[in-house]
């Protein structure tokens, strides 16, 4: 059962929220952000989006070159929260049962026992998801969407705190199975991970050589999962006015009808953002505002999170791509042209 529809879970989250003041919950997450940024140097935007995914109860797809601390980020996050993590290397010979688990036959009594797979952890790093065949990708995406897996006709619930960070390597594309657009839509965010700047890379180099202190921020006791659920409840309850909601809706509508905002944008979009994208943008904008200490959402919150939320949900036409237009540039044009109510 999806934890958000579990009455007992809802009551527990409500009690946790009542026992934490909003400012205390926010301070806990700001402390978590400081800790993460001291572990992952030069990737502040990535760290923030990872925390947004935790608070918005979604999954993220990360595209970046090897060696940019993606695995370290998941491990650091799991260390700071009272939960566990698992890295799964996706390969062409991987089977769905390698993720979900399988029934093991016991000859001594003729019974079958379910052996859970690696997906039964809180934080999952699905490394190079595009290297596995479509059936394996579908098995993971079903687990992400339903928060459960079915093996041998029996359904098993996944942990209530469950986040998948899938990665794609933009360099090597041979022997890969690109995720279809319909499956990409299941991810709350798509993050494009760039290289750290010169100062950050110098700090990384000196830290590895032991020539720089670069002390990791002390975090203390891991955050209980109840605190995460309470913070999530607080963040998603952040107020959004009708004017900001209208701006959000008009922006998503513009991804489907861009010609309304410039004749040169006619014929550039094959498919715009889906209603799932509207819901994702709403949730992420609320979290973005909450992390900044506000109890209301501004148009700037929508703008700040729009590209990460929608870039994988918009499919440009072949002609637009041939003319050099990419999704980020397309969204930048809409951000500049859709008026704020």
Automatic annotation (TrEMBL):
It comes from the Bacteria. Pfam families: AAA_3 (PF07726), AAA_lid_2 (PF17863). The keyword Glycosyltransferase does not apply. Residues 268-328 form the ChlI/MoxR AAA lid domain. Keywords: ATP-binding, Nucleotide-binding. One of its GO terms (molecular function) is ATP hydrolysis activity. Residues 59-189 form the ATPase AAA-3 domain. Belongs to the MoxR family. This is AAA family ATPase.
